[in-house]
Amino acid sequence: MKTKTFKLFLLIFATCGFLVISCKKDNTTSTVFTSAQISQVQNSDAQDAIADKNDQDVDNTLDQLQVTNYQPSATKSDMTMPGRTITVNHPDSTTFPKVITIVYSNYQDSTKDESFVKNGEIDITVTASANKQFVTRTMTFKSFSITTDSTTVTVRGTRTVTRTGITYKFKSLTSLRLTITDIITANLTYAITKTGVSDSLTFTRVVDKTRKAFLHYANIGGNTWKTINFKNVVATDTVTYSGTTTGVNEKGDSYSKTVSVSTPLVMTFYRGTPVIVSGTMDFTITGSSAESFTITFKEDPDHLHMTLVTVTNNVTSKTHSFDRRVSRKLLKWW
């Protein structure tokens, strides 16, 4: 079977960076949580926002390359923008392993909310099993940095994405649901420096999580299998996450975040923007600032573009609830 148009651009969004952003609706008094406790939650999620912003951009680039048999196309403006060079040692669909190198030189990566400047190199080794769809991508960050405003975040370490499942479910010729399962592991170090500040901050993230995407396509033309033309319907897509992130925060305290398989973070899309509609996360900090929180997410029926977040202090059983809207803007809590 061959399709006329079938682009599998997996949308990758931050799983845990949603607590730091946008409109706030407090349902409790300010005495429920101390300022230090609030900072712990906010700082940790700012870290995840930075980390997953990096991951999202690299994944999107690799997905585009996979569609073109790993041949950087001069016709795609996103692949040839000034300040970014992409090379592939085996630009074809059959030779593995292959090494993809992305070099940034003051690359301007702007979003709706904020401008990011990237410098450095990311090397990606792509391997494939007998089923060429089950690829493994190992990304090595070499002096890679993101600068936003007066803050620079430098990333070192590796991240591996292993594709373990792809299934197709057709409904006659009218629609298709594609399910993709990825296992994501990472061991990364982030160093944060600010202009005019002598001290630098460092935190680490060790990731082991599962990402499952349910992507929906509608037939926009063609009445036979030879002429079928599918288009992604983002409004009906769903992405779920489960797993654990551990590390050391910028204060030197160890932390862990766990999302169980039974209560994964479930993400849908409102007008193209990701919204967490359900899920529970356990957030624990040890060391000098020991804390334990349970964070629950659900869709806000009054604001469909927002997630209603409830944080429970597991020591005092006090709760704090607020709305958060997903944005790619990195707020500077450090």
What does this structure look like?
By secondary structure, the protein is mainly β. The chain has one domain (35-324). It has one helix at residues 35-67; strands at 84-88, 98-110, 115-128, 135-148, 151-171, 175-194, 201-219, 230-232, 238-248, 254-259, 265-270, 273-285, 291-299, 307-313, 319-324. It has a 15-stranded antiparallel β-sheet that branches. Strand 14 and strand 15 (319-324) form a beta hairpin. Residues 1-30 and 328-334 have low confidence and may be disordered.
Output the helix-strand order. Answer: HEEEEEEEEEEEEEEE
* Approximate shape: globular
Please state roughly what percent of the residues sit in beta strands, choosing from under 5%, 5-15%, 15-25%, 25-35%, 35-45% or over 45%. over 45%
- Strand pairing plus helix content: what structural class? mainly beta
The overall pLDDT, averaged over residues, is 78
Beta strands, count: 15
Low-confidence segments? 1-30, 328-334
Task: Provide a count of the helices.
Answer: 1
Secondary-structure blueprint:
Blueprint: H1 35-67, E1 84-88, E2 98-110, E3 115-128, E4 135-148, E5 151-171, E6 175-194, E7 201-219, E8 230-232, E9 238-248, E10 254-259, E11 265-270, E12 273-285, E13 291-299, E14 307-313, E15 319-324
Antiparallel strand pairs: 1-2, 2-3, 3-4, 4-5, 5-6, 6-7, 7-8, 7-9, 9-10, 9-11, 10-12, 11-12, 12-13, 13-14, 14-15
